[in-house]
Amino acid sequence: MGKAYRLVMREVTLEDVVRIRASDGMRLTTSPFGVTPEQYEKNPPIYVGASVAWKHHPDRMPPAVRAGLEKAIKISKSCAGILGTVIWNGKLYPKKCIEQKKQARKI
Q1: What is the C-alpha R_g of the chain?
Q2: Disulfide engineering: 60 pairs with which of 11, 34, 54, 96, CB 3.0-4.6 Å?
Q3: Where does residue 64 rank: exposed (0-12), middle (13-18), buried (19+ CB within 10 A)?
Q4: Is residue 77 classed exposed, middle or buried when 0-12, 13-18 and 19+ CB atoms within 10 A define those classes?
């Protein structure tokens, strides 16, 4: 698993997003995990990092990755409609996330 790095920029411009999304070597993401909803709303953590070698080329996806994604999609669909948040391990998480982890036997 690659490491993600927090962007130091104060603001991500549209040009930054377009450049990173078009790049085969970079990815851009944000995550609500580990921060409060208020922190996420005011200043969501934005990460940029190295993308997978098959970005933009799903036909090059390794079979094990494809199987894992299919399993994750099945679990996600089974948890559709689960709303709200829950405190787990001292942090705020979406209820759907915790249920997905339970179904995947990760907790």
Answers
A1: 16
A2: 54
A3: exposed
A4: exposed
Contact 17, 28 (CB under 8 A): yes
Which pair of structure tokens corresponds to residue 67? 């199987």
Tens-digit pLDDT profile for residues 18-49: 988 898 888 888 777 777 888 878 877 777 88
| Three-state SS at 82 | coil
The count of residues in the chain is: 107
Q: What is the pLDDT of residues 61-79, one digit of tens each?
A: 999 999 999 999 999 999 9
pTM of the model: 0.53
Give the pair of three-digit tokens for residue 76.
């996600």
**Alpha-carbon gap, residue 97 to 85, rounded angstroms:** 9
List 87's β-bridge partners, or say none: 92
